[in-house]
Amino acid sequence: MSSVALSLDVTVKKGVPIRTCSPLQSFYCSMARSKDTPTSLERNHRRSVKRTSSQNPRKLIGTGILVLILITFSLQLLISLSTGVITSLSLVHAESKGGRGDGIPRKISIGGSGGCMWFGNISGPPTKCIITTHFRPDPEILDLNKHDTIIQAMSFRMGIWEITNYISTALVFLGLIMFLITIRYREIWKITAVIFYFVTFVSWAALIGEIASLIILKKNVIVARPKFHLHPGVVIWLMIISTVLASITGCLVVWFLEDRNTPRQTEETEIGNPAGEGRGARED
Question: What keywords would UniProt list here (predicted)?
Answer without folding.
Answer: Membrane, Transmembrane, Transmembrane helix
